[in-house]
Input
Amino acid sequence: MSVHLEKRILVTGGAGFLGSHLCERLLGGRTSVLCADNFFTGSRRNIQPLLQHPGFELVRHDVTFPLYVEVDQIYNLACPASPIHYQRDPVQTTKTSVHGAINMLGLAKRTKARILQASTSEVYGDPLFHPQKEEHWGNVNPIGARSCYDEGKRCAETLFFDYWRQHRMEIKVARIFNTYGPRMHPNDGRVVSNFIVQALLGRDITIFGDGSQTRSFCYVDDLIDGLIRLMDSSAEVTGPLNIGSPEEIAIGELATAIRDLARSKSRIIIRPLPEDDPRRRRPDISAAQRLLGWAPSTDLRTGLSRTIAYFEQLLVEQGSAALLEESSARA
Ligand code: NAD
Ligand code: UDP
Output
């Protein structure tokens, strides 16, 4: 018996951390999902359970090249997101954001699909206002180590709004703040995965700088809920909209919280602060609350406990050496 599926949705970067959760959630509705990924940082393991689903299709594709498919909605998530990954081949990172946006916007224009861009809090750079509202134009170094990512994402936003003004397309821009949860890469250098893996392995927990810099961490399920609400919102809602947690925490405090939750005896040590590391970051989410009725509902302790449980399971299944080796080889 054939199932009538209402919508065909393209998720670029669908084999990554956020993309795989998004594909899984979308398949729960009356939709079919086409996942396009070049596996730069994504993995088959992330989407393994989805491969059997009749509504799921996987295509190996690099978004810096055009893609010819028929779709109703596009979530454009393709782009390495962790500093270690996006700084490995910075030219390719900028191309992925800029050429990727041009190609996916071109596809949306031809198919009249609604398109959502996974933008980032990094467009605010080292922000001049706190908490960050969407009106803040940002304080970004255009020539530093993080610029390939920050400026690539800023240019993608420019392209989205120019396509919208010029071609009257249905665009949605989400500015995603730090997100964490199961399926984060164990060895991609992001703070939550780093601290959890270090705590579980009994290694030193590495705080960069004095640990007073802050971030606001959103649990992945809440974030995906926000992205889908934005995509399905009325056509006038274009964003950019901040999607993230307003619960701000200093990195030093996060280290202690993770060590305690993981019941670890790891030492906490200090390492140099990377270049252009933002001092403070917390979204003002009042626009998302007003326009989407959205706010995160998972508190940090609950989300961290679930994430720790995921990494514990991974360590049991794969062993520490295999796990760390595999993730750095993939990168
Ligand atoms: P991720 O690295 O796990 O996923 C990115 C995916 O994109 C991977 O599967 C990778 O293989 C794929 N990809 C990379 N370059 C590609 C290319 N040229 N063509 C096709 N596929 C390509 O990262 P993530 O955390 O899941 O982030 C997803 C998106 O959300 C990214 O655009 C990122 O900038 C954005 N974002 C994430 C966060 C966060 O905290 N996770 C915060 C802000 C923004
Ligand atoms: N960080 C840290 N120790 C680590 C990894 C990261 O202290 O082992 C710090 C990093 O310097 C930054 C914060 O944690 O201040 C968040 O880093 P992440 O790379 O996760 O995200 P981003 O800087 O892109 O927000």
